[in-house]
Amino acid sequence: MLQGKCVDTGGSTNLTKGELYYLFPHGGHAYCASRFPRPGSHFGAYQKNHFELVDVAIDVSAQVLNKYLARVVKPPSHFYRIDEEYIITEQRADGYYSVFFKHRPDDPPIGAYKRIDCFERIEPFRASEAVMMHDIPKLEQKTADLVYDKPEIVNAPHKSQKYEQLTLFLE
Q: Is the pTM value of this prediction over 0.85?
């Protein structure tokens, strides 16, 4: 992903001279310009000469936020239930924190919230515990409960009943 400063609008009303845009290559002579760091959110393709590329030093350590195992205290939406557990991040610079499914912490977040009273932090989350070790005994117990003996198949004569149309309603 590139960032570029608009140096010439080229008659476009979408571009503003001097504003920074996220740029995504579009063929050999053009960029798709976006206000957001996502290719699907571009608002048009423009010639490369309309932009001056800008080196943006992104501090990777600043982007990595600590994750915590958390319990829902006050559901932020109808999707959440009280006492369910999720993975949440620390608050970002904009005040939001992200929420992930407990069993899929590496997937994209399922929500981002500003209210900090929705979740109660339980403990720091370690990525090596993607499958929570304390859930394994529960799973083993559930599978042990499901094991049962197969019933024997009895070769009993099958009674076939023949019904004619509407005879069921006449009785």
A: no
